[in-house]
Amino acid sequence: MSLLETEAQLKAFIESQLMIVKANIASILKTKLIEYIQEFYSEYSPAEYQRTSQFLTSPESEVFTDRLEVFLDPLGIHYEEIQAEEVWELAAEGYHGNVNIRRDSRFWKDFNDYVNGNLYHIFKNELKKIGFEVI
Predict the structure, then answer these.
(1) Average pLDDT, the chain
(2) Residue-range domain boundaries for the chain
(3) What does the alpha-carbon distance between residue 91 and residue 122 come to, in Å, rounded to a whole number?
(4) DSSP characters for 103-118?
(5) What are the φ and ψ backbone dihedral angles of 93, each rounded to 5 degrees?
(6) DSSP, res 67
(7) Which of 3, 130, 135, 17 is nearest to 65 (CA)?
(8) Shortest CA distance to 94 belongs to which of 83, 85, 107?
(9) What pTM was estimated for this model as a whole?
(10) Residue 47's closest CA among 101, 107, 103?
């Protein structure tokens, strides 16, 4: 790394490092969301329909200069009789395939609880990985 000689260079360097940190955090959180969906899947093996795993592959992440987002992406999801958003809403309440099949898992609540309880520590660890001293 070359010597930073101006405030603008310092700002650009810090911003580039924060983009790396945010990308790493987004990847960690996306992986965690997939784990919660896998846990949801493990509660029920469908007999009435064939699981396509479209729901499992729907988590995505994006990194912006001022934030990162981890979300369920409806693109590429094609259910015959229901919209992706409806499936996610039902699944968030523990329903599998229809309102007659309900289990205990609440993947979205569990994911949000995880983010709220761990984001600070994840951010701190990712800063340390790229050389920042964090107290």
Answers:
(1) 93
(2) 7-129
(3) 27
(4) -S--HHHHHHHHHHHH
(5) -95, 5
(6) -
(7) 17
(8) 107
(9) 0.90
(10) 101
